[in-house]
Design goal:
Pfam families: HAT_Syf1_CNRKL1_C (PF23231). This is Crooked neck-like protein 1. InterPro entries: HAT, HAT_Syf1_CNRKL1_C, Syf1-like, TPR-like_helical_dom_sf. It is found in: Nucleus speckle. It is a single chain. The chain is mainly α. The protein has a domain at 644-669. The chain has 36 helices and four strands. The chain has helices at 2-19, 40-51, 66-86, 91-103, 107-120, 125-137, 141-154, 159-171, 175-186, 192-204, 208-223, 240-252, 256-270, 277-289, 293-306, 313-326, 329-350, 355-368, 371-382, 391-394, 398-411, 415-428, 437-449, 453-466, 470-482, 486-499, 504-516, 520-531, 539-552, 556-569, 573-585, 591-605, 612-629, 632-641, 677-701, 703-711, and strands at 224-229, 232-235, 644-653, 659-669. Strands 1-2 form a two-stranded antiparallel sheet. A two-stranded antiparallel sheet has the order 3-4. Strand 3 and strand 4 (659-669) form a beta hairpin. Helix 10 (192-204) packs antiparallel against helix 11 (208-223). The radius of gyration is 45 Å and the shape is extended. The relative contact order is 0.02.
Length: 712
């Protein structure tokens, strides 16, 4: 029957479909993929970004009576209990629950929650710490002691429990209790820091004997450790630093005999099989401080005879220093030089371009060997020319030549060889690509020391012709200045300024030279040429120097003209302020009026300035001027010109054009700007409306006050 019905239903459906016209589906002609494809990664990233969108904060709930408070507590407790029931092992849920109860001063409930949490996971360190901190915060000292006792009993290897327990007892003034906790801790033979904490605790209370006994126990406990391997006792050697600390403790408290005994015990304890250079270095330095130099020498020799050379580098170094200070220098330095020389030879063979190793090697050779050996090593070093002609690869290499030349001049006293070294170096340098001005200047200074001025001038002239640099010009000019050859200085300055016309410092120095020589017109002409240059590296320095020059010459009209010319180029606020201060310091009768006019003119000129801070700076300077020299009317006027500082917000955009949020900034509204007057009115109306809103809210919160006021 079901099949028949289905068959009949199918017939009816087909008949109905035949009667109704089925709409045609449009065929897709272009089945190519779209140009912009959206990947699954983009969808996930967009979903993640939308998760980070700021949600509106939940509405604040105000509780007005006890029933609402109890209802709120019940709901919160139910929420916490549900979270705990869902996952009991998440300790953070327990801690949040307990802290919430603690915030309500429900200490007993919080305590119960912590205890339930400890039943779940008693190995959680954070849980014990939070529990104990709650008790300490609420001044429940005995409860806190109980918790710390349980914690250190349950987890004795967690040092944090012991540290906090002892600190609490010490803060409570219970020194004996703190010492008792330390003693319980030491029974577990903890790490080194625990022992040092105990020692420092005793030293804080001037218990030196107790600290000494702790050191003894510490060393012994670190010396013998029972290890159950085939029922045998294994000797575990302690670290040397523990013995050294013990000895230094005795030395610090002036028990020198005890300190020496500790060192001797350490040497005996380690024997010859486990000798350590640090122990002997510390022992020798102790004896050196006690002025026992023979003992020091015996200790060093004993250790050097028994410790392998590769393990005794520090010992050897300290022995050398000691012999240099107190003993026969020759004997020990021969050994040191031969050993270190071998090391440096290995280094330079492995990498001939390791110039630092060459420097160390040469320093060693210069201090101990003859001149021929030193020259041989220098020749080998300078033969390793950098393979690439780039200046950064030559910066270390060039000092080999400099040191070589200085050695020949100062140590070997060979001026001819020194000249040959300088000339060979200058021939080697690729001057078309780069040069070293330092090398040219050193060569010229050497020739001057040899009283050979023509060669020095020739060298510097060659350097300027081959590879002109600022440093070379400055050095050459400085040389001629010292020789008082002012005509040569003028020519050099001319060449220098042809080479670098944008260098303001050169123009200023040239003008200062002419000023010193008394040729004011030439100096002024140089300044005029300088400020007429199209490109300058520091134009503000140049203008300031020119203005200061005219002020020194007391040419006040020319100074004013200079300021006006400068203001035609820039309207910077510092220029206006400097001009006003100049007018004030000019010392003429109308100086105050002139200064005030400058401020007026500057204020008008800076109304169109976009940088409002500069205009504020100008007004501040004007106000300080009026406070010192002005009348009440002028002070009142400048006060009216001062802007109002308001806070605004503006939208930020990231580098990719996306929205980056809002930024607060301060803006200034000047009373003079008529365009800002509507904004000021709107701001005043907004403040008035806000004040009215606050008054109406206050009246709504206190209706009894309104009744009393109406009756009154």
């Amino acid at each position: 029957r079901g099949g028949a019905c289905a068959h009949g239903g199918g017939k009816m459906a087909s008949t109905a479909a035949g009667k109704q016209r089925i709409p045609k589906v449009a065929k897709v002609k272009n089945k190519a993929p779209a140009e912009v494809q959206i990947t699954a990664e983009q969808l996930l990233r967009e979903a993640k970004e939308r998760e980070l969108e700021l949600l509106p904060p939940p509405p604040q709930q105000k509780i007005t009576d006890v029933e609402e408070l109890n209802d709120y507590k019940l709901r919160k407790r139910k929420t916490f209990e549900d979270n705990i029931r869902k996952n009991r092992t998440v300790i953070s849920n327990w801690i949040k629950y307990a802290q919430w109860e603690e915030s309500l001063k429900e200490i007993q409930r919080a305590r119960s929650i912590y205890e339930r949490a400890l039943d779940v996971d008693y190995r959680n360190v954070t849980l014990w710490l939070k529990y104990a901190e709650m008790e300490m915060k609420n001044r429940q000292v005995n409860h806190a002691r109980n918790i710390w006792d349980r914690a250190i009993t349950t987890l004795p290897r967690v040092n944090q429990f012991w540290y906090k327990y002892t600190y609490m007892e010490e803060m409570l003034g219970n020194v004996a209790g703190s010492r008792q906790v330390f003693e319980r801790w030491m029974e577990w033979q903890p790490e080194e820091q625990a022992w040092h904490s105990y020692i420092n605790f005793e030293l804080r209370y001037k218990e030196v004997d107790r600290a000494r006994s702790i050191y003894e126990r510490y060393i012994l406990s670190r010396a013998w450790v029972k290890v159950s391997i085939l029922a045998a006792l294994v000797l575990v050697h302690p670290e040397v630093k523990n013995w050294i600390k013990y000895a230094r403790f005795e030395e610090k408290h002036s028990y020198f005999a005890h300190a020496r005994k500790v060192y001797e015990r350490a040497v005996e304890f380690f024997g010859e099989e486990h000798m350590d250079e640090h122990l002997y270095v510390a022992f020798a330095k102790f004896e050196e401080n006690q002025k026992e130099f023979e003992r020091v020498r015996v200790i060093y020799k004993y250790a050097l005879d028994r410790i392998p050379k590769q393990d005794a580098q520090n010992l050897f170094k300290n022995y050398t220093i000691f012999e240099k200070k107190f003993g026969d220098r020759r004997g020990i330095e021969d050994i040191i030089v031969s050993k270190r020389r071998f090391q440096y030879e290995e280094e330079v063979k492995a990498n001939p371009h390791n110039y630092d190793a060459w420097f160390d090697y040469l320093r060693l050779v210069e201090s101990d060997t003859d001149a021929d050996t030193v020259r041989e090593v220098y020749e080998r070093a300078i033969a390793n020319v950098p393979p690439i002609q780039e200046k950064r690869h030559w910066k270390r290499y060039i000092y080999l030549w400099i040191n070589y030349a200085l050695y020949e001049e100062l140590e070997a006293k060979a001026s001819k060889r020194t000249r040959q070294v300088y000339q060979a170096c200058l021939e080697l340098l690729p001057h078309k690509k780069f040069t070293f001005a330092k090398m040219w200047l050193l060569y010229a200074q050497f020739e001057i020391r040899q009283k050979n001025l023509p060669l020095a001038r020739r060298a510097l002239g060659t350097s300027i012709g081959k590879c002109p640099k600022n440093k070379l010009f400055k050095g050459y000019i400085e040389l001629e200045l010292q020789l008082r050859e002012f005509d040569r200085c003028r020519k050099l300055y001319e060449k220098f300024l042809e080479f670098a016309p944008e260098n303001c410092t050169s123009w200023i120095k040239f003008a200062e030279l002419e000023t010193i020589l008394g040729d004011i017109d030439r100096a002024r002409a140089i300044y005029e040429l300088a400020i007429g240059q199209p490109r300058l590296d520091m134009p503000e320095v140049l203008w300031k120097s020119y203005i200061d020059f005219e002020i020194e010459q007391e040419e006040y009209e020319k100074t004013r003209n200079l300021y006006r010319r400068l203001l035609q180029r820039t309207q910077h606020v510092k220029v206006w302020i400097s001009l006003a201060q100049f007018e004030l310091s000019a010392g003429q009768g109308e100086r105050l009026q002139r200064c005030r006019q400058i401020y007026e003119e500057a204020n008008k000129a800076m109304r169109s300035c976009e940088e409002k801070e500069e205009r504020v700076m100008l007004l501040e300077s004007w106000r300080s001027f009026e406070e010192e020299f002005g009348t009440d009317a002028t002070k009142e006027r400048i006060d009216k010109l001062m802007p109002e500082k308001i806070k605004k917000r503006r939208k930020l955009q990231a580098e990719d054009g996306s929205d980056a949020g809002w930024e607060e900034y301060y803006d200034y509204i000047f009373p003079e700007d008529t365009a800002n007057q509507p904004n000021l009115k709107l701001l005043a109306m907004a403040k008035l409306w806000k004040k009215q809103q606050q008054e109406s809210e206050a009246a709504a919160m206190d209706p009894d006050k309104d009744i009393d006021e109406s009756q009154t």
